[in-house]
Amino acid sequence: MARDDASGHLSRIPEAVYPNYLRYRRAVDYCSNRPIYEDQKIDLSKPRLFDTSSVEYPQKVKPASDRTGFCLFMAYRQKYTSKYHLLNEWRNAEDGSELRKEWKRKADELRMEQKEQIERGMITTKKRMGRAE
User: Fold this and answer.
1) Is 57 exposed, middle or buried (0-12, 13-18, 19+ CB in 10 A)?
2) Kind and range of the H or E run holding 99
3) What are the residues whose beta carbons fall under 8 Å from the beta carbon of 30, sequence distance 6 or more?
4) How far apart (Å, rounded) are the C-alpha atoms in residues 48 and 19?
């Protein structure tokens, strides 16, 4: 396993022992510069993006399928209020409201980041209902 040395640099890991270690480190570096990982409103506990705490490379994730932002909204707000209240808040918000625009933007950002990570080879999506997404 990699350990920081006194200078704060990672010690050298033999590529033969961890064949994808360099790719993994590049992926971790990439993620550390992505704003989506800093967004406290996006629940990253569900595997939809590269998880920097796991050394698996590439990682299998669920497809980001939320088109409206509703699922992200519910996951974030359920920590603070009841599900019933949230459903009413979402239903009462008009299509072009700030609430819906904010969460639609977050859902779009998540899908775009997932697409970028797939293209970089960092993640693959799990098959769902017999087909890859």
Assistant:
1) buried
2) helix 98-119
3) 50, 120, 122
4) 24
Provide the residue type at 75 as one letter: A
Helices (H), the chain: 21-32, 70-77, 83-92, 98-119
The model's pTM: 0.78
Is the separation of the CB atoms in 65 and 110 below 8 Å?
no
- With vertex at residue 21, the alpha carbon angle to CA 128 and CA 1, rounded to the nearest 5 degrees, is 110
- pLDDT tens-place string over residues 61-109: 999 999 999 999 998 988 777 777 888 899 999 989 999 999 999 999 9
Q: Is 27 helix (H, G, I), strand (E, B) or coil?
A: helix
Main-chain dihedrals φ then ψ at residue 12, nearest 5 degrees: -75, 130
Q: What percent of the chain has a predicted confidence (pLDDT) above 70?
A: 81
β-pair partners for 69: none
Domain boundaries, the chain: 21-125
Tell me how far CA of residue 48 lies from CA of 8, 44, 83, 97, 99, in angstroms: 30, 7, 23, 26, 23
Nearest-angstrom CA–CA distance, 37 and 71: 18
